[in-house]
Design goal:
Helix 4 packs across helix 13, helix 4 runs parallel beside helix 19 and helix 13 packs across helix 14. The protein is mainly alpha-helical. The protein has a three-stranded parallel beta sheet. Strands 4-5 form a two-stranded antiparallel ribbon. Strands 6-7 form a two-stranded parallel ribbon. The protein is built from 19 helices and seven strands. Bound molecules: tryptophan and iron/sulfur cluster (SF4).
Length: 416
């Protein structure tokens, strides 16, 4: 099969990326023709103001990818912006893509929401508004618990996001008036809510992403995928709407100009199996990630900070591995016998959490050791490995140009 996937270069990668995405790619590289690229243009859609770290982040991504075993002999590894045909195809696609397809795209709404959410959260926290601690009014509370089936205290941020999400939207989209009412229902004072909303309406927050590039993000992504005539695209669940749109664009193009593109399937990467050390989703912004580039000391420190079974307070308390983050890691990193042993001993207080964590740190370090070695090798010879990506760009360009010739022909565009 032909496989295409990309990743935005937003900084060093962590174990969550590894188990969520990279491991999948590494499996796929064995029996498929894979095109994996660093989506640096896509990184610009919301970070166009902060380009000074872009080159460094791309380099970092090259190092991360190669150190975990993505093999340039088996795959075409490249950098999106160096294959200009992506932008040509995106431009042509933009001619046939109805605006409403983009505006209704849930990912667009999501991203917009994230920015607004981040803003409000920072705003309220900056004002010392205790929205995080104050339980919201009961009705919303219960409805949410029902809807998510989760216990609110454990995942407060997720919970809060959900609340905000509901406060944000009515059926037609963002609704500032409704937002104001809903935020006040959460127990926030009118004055502060009004100030926050006024900032949202008039400030830079919305404008930051009210760009053409941001809106047309999925059009570029469709071009990324279709230009290599991908059969399948490994992605996380959050990307499904983008792929749906890719198929719609392919269909529309084929209808208008004759069969040119396949309609690629998705290969869904499982929900992140790894939580951050605090039990929330692993993410740079939560400061709870273990990075592929962490040294053994850093790993040990982070593991020692991990949350365990909250009911096990004293060493003599019996623990429950089923609710312990440390244990969920053990299942991924530690050999079966030891895992079974911990499972038994923890329940009768036969093993202490510190000892258990030391074992885990060892397991993670053992896993990371070969990655670290490879990393050193790549870093030492970075110019050579950057060249590998340059070669990848050439190979990708040849493929992309083939498709573009067909596209221009089918569209009956000018040709000398
Ligand atoms: N949008 C993807 C993400 O944020 C990155 C991406 C860009 C991509 N182009 C792609 C993924 C093409 C798959 C295929 O993760
Ligand atoms: Fe978790 Fe290990 Fe402590 Fe049990 S012993 S609660 S599995 S850290």
């Amino acid at each position: 099969m032909r496989i295409v996937s990309g990743m935005r270069p937003t900084g060093k990668l962590h174990l969550g990326h590894y188990f969520g995405v990279l491991k999948n790619w590494i499996d796929l590289q064995e029996n498929n023709r894979c095109f994996f690229f660093i989506a640096d243009w896509h990184a610009l859609t919301n970070k166009y103001k902060e380009t000074e770290s872009l080159k460094e982040n791309i380099k970092e991504m090259i190092i991360d990818w190669l150190s975990v075993g993505l093999d340039p002999e088996k795959n075409v590894l490249f950098i999106q912006s160096q294959v200009k045909q992506h932008s040509e195809l995106a431009l042509l696609f933009s001619m046939i893509t109805p605006k409403s397809w983009l505006e209704l795209n849930p990912s667009y709404k999501d991203l917009k929401f994230n920015l607004y959410y981040q803003y409000l959260r920072d705003f309220f926290l900056g004002k010392n508004v205790k929205v995080l601690q104050t339980p919201p009014i009961k009705k919303v509370d219960e409805a949410l618990e029902e809807a998510t089936g989760k216990q609110k205290n454990k995942i407060y941020d997720e919970y809060l996001r959900e609340l905000f999400f509901r406060a944000f939207y009515n059926k037609r989209g963002i609704d500032f008036k409704g937002l104001k009412e809903n935020l006040m229902k959460l127990g926030l004072s009118k004055k502060i809510v009004e100030e926050a909303i006024k900032n949202l309406e008039t400030g830079d927050i919305g404008k930051d992403i009210d760009t053409l590039g941001f809106l047309s993000y999925p059009v570029l992504q469709a071009a990324d995928i279709l230009i290599y005539k991908a059969d399948a695209v490994p992605i996380g669940e959050d990307q499904l709407p983008h792929l749906e749109l890719t198929r719609e664009i392919a269909r529309r193009f084929n209808n208008l100009y004759g069969k040119t593109f396949p309609e690629p399937k998705h290969i869904l990467t499982e929900e992140a199996k790894l939580l951050g050390i605090d039990g929330r989703k692993m993410s740079k912004s939560y400061n709870n990630a273990i990075y592929l580039s962490d040294n053994s000391k850093e790993v040990e420190q982070k593991v020692l900070m991990m949350k365990t079974d909250p009911n096990r307070i004293k060493r003599t308390d019996k623990g429950n591995p089923d609710v312990c983050i440390v244990f969920s890691y053990h299942k991924l990193f530690t050999d079966k016998n030891t895992v079974e042993n911990i499972n038994v001993e923890c329940r009768k207080a036969g093993i202490g959490c510190v000892e258990c964590k030391k074992l885990l740190a060892d397991s993670i370090n053992k896993f990371l050791e070969p990655i670290r070695e490879k990393r050193e090798e790549v870093k030492k010879d970075i110019e050579k490995y950057i060249n590998v990506f340059k070669e990848g760009c050439k190979t990708a360009s040849i493929e992309a140009e083939k498709t573009m010739e067909e596209v221009r022909d089918n569209m009956k565009l000018w040709k000398f």
